[in-house]
């Protein structure tokens, strides 16, 4: 699988900035982390992140979990009871609420 860094700039900024290696020190739940991001972001940026999550899943399809692990090693959705798709669905739900 060919992972292209920089293909999803807003998503990569979000994941690297909020779900970094010490993300659990920032908040205890996905919801807390996402709410923190949302409170400091404008609506256009939030919209772009959501679009890039959709594009990521469409691009990698059945390989989304593996691609997610390669790009963002500091968080494994499986340890939180999620796949890459369900993790992004949860994030989008919070961002759009």
UniProtKB/TrEMBL annotation:
Annotated protein name in UniProt: Contact-dependent growth inhibition system immunity protein
CdiI immunity protein domain sequence ranges: 7-93
Name of one Pfam family that matches: CdiI_2
InterPro entries per UniProt: CdiI_2
Organism (species): Achromobacter seleniivolatilans
């Amino acid at each position: 699988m060919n992972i292209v860094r920089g293909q999803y700039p807003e998503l990569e900024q979000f994941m690297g900035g909020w779900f970094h290696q010490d993300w659990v020190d920032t908040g205890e739940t996905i919801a807390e982390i996402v709410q923190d991001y949302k409170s400091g972001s404008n609506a256009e940026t939030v919209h772009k992140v959501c679009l890039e999550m959709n594009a990521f899943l469409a691009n990698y399809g059945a390989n989304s979990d593996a691609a997610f692990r390669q790009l963002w090693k500091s968080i494994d959705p499986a340890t939180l009871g999620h796949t890459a798709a369900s993790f992004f669905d949860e994030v989008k739900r919070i961002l759009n609420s």
